[in-house]
Amino acid sequence: MVSNFIHRMTRPAAEKKSEKLIFAESLPTETKYFLQRNFPGRSIAFAEMKTTSKSTTYVATLNDGIQISFNENGAWEKIDCKMGVVPAALVPSSVAAFMNAFYPGIPLVKIEKSDVGYEVTLSNFASLKFNHTENVA
User: How far is the C-alpha of 64 from the C-alpha of 44, rounded, in Å?
Assistant: First the structure.
């Protein structure tokens, strides 16, 4: 009984998480500019703000279902175009070159930044990881 109590007392505190819908106008300016420039003709269906004790993330869902996640500074972290195509301007050049060489004609539908590089998903559901030097990891 006592050891159970001690075990519960020594567990790390759970990270506080919060998610809430926000008005599109409440997105960071950089985020709104990014969306206008890279996804013209689309509107924001809804936006969310997700907070933890460590960070804030914004998620914009466009009227065609595309979801883009941004960090608190407004830089994109993940772009999920579902079965659409990630805009070519957002794909690093060496990743695009690799895709053209080994997966020609297969659209890239999702790209995500990580601490070690990028992870991309193709329309055929293949998933590839690239390190920071943009080589296949």
Answer: 9
Quote the CA–CA distance of 65 and 41 in Å, as a whole number. 13
Take residue 29 and report the two structure tokens written for it: 């300016």
Look up the pTM and report it. Answer: 0.83
Which pLDDT tens digits describe the chain residue by residue (137 residues)? 444 555 455 555 566 789 999 999 999 999 999 999 999 999 999 999 999 988 999 999 999 999 999 999 889 999 999 989 999 999 999 899 999 999 999 999 999 998 889 999 999 999 999 987 656 65
